Amino acid sequence: MSLSRRQLRKSAEALAKDGLGRQQIFSALRMQVGEKDDEKLARIVRYVPSLAARRRYKMPHAVLLVLLWLTVVGKSLYRINVAMDSGWSRWYAALTLPAITVILSVAVAMYRTRAYHTIAFLSVIGLFRYFTHVDMDHFDPWDSVDLIVAAAVIGLSWYLFMKMASNYEVIKTADGGTAILFPSDPETGTT
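RE: above sequence
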């Protein structure tokens, strides 16, 4: 591959912002990269949402960003409060989760679809961790708000990942080679 993965992703994102579909992006970048790296290029293009998808899912995307920022603020305040009560000797641990959430929020704002999957996965782990350590005799009402926000983040991030990322198909051509085929967008008809 003559271009780095990062350069290819940036080129694919620029082409997507111009309104091209995934198949068109793949074909345009394939001329720059060459045929031998078709699979690698397809794995990059599959995670670049089209302009139509960005417009179509603008509202759920904005809601997810708001929920993520509320999570950052809530977790930061809670962890700073805990750190003040128990001493600042482990202040870095108190701000690790909010820092990770900020990084993932920036990735979501930039339409990096792999971030949706990562957010859903980490939120599910957080819920499992919560339910294994919760004391139901001392259930705090704010915990239910946290659980509702976590469930909404999981649902929205998984939904957006499923809608904004795309699979591709490797098919055999008549001459014995292979070709990469992306599905067409049902609403716009672009491939």
